[in-house]
Amino acid sequence: MKSIRTKLKLNNKQKTLLAQHAGYSRWCYNWGLSLWNAAYTAGYKPNARKLREVFTNHTKPLYPWMKNLSSRVYQYAFPTECCANVNLGEAFKRFFKGLGRYPKFKKKGRSDSFTIDNSPKANRIKRMES
What we know:
The protein has 130 residues and is an all-alpha fold. 51% of the residues lie in helices and 0% in strands.
């Protein structure tokens, strides 16, 4: 995998769209961490795949605003085998291996970010900006 970091010159509409995607990513991560904590406290063994299934089938339909944003954002928040080294799943892997602390909730305005890839659906962001 290769990543590229660049500074963008955005208009207000584009800034708003990117901020919404960053907020969506943060919301998904925090939702997943909250559910993980609740499941673990109740005696279950949660994992990123189960979180993603619950989110896709039960939670996402309750929030219609999520349909306006790229689905790739939440897919990276709850990784599966295809993207096993990102966000919440990776945070717990590092914690259980003793390489990091227990994951914390993300806060607005602190390193706001989101991940998308070069799939055809990721281009939806590009089309919305034009």
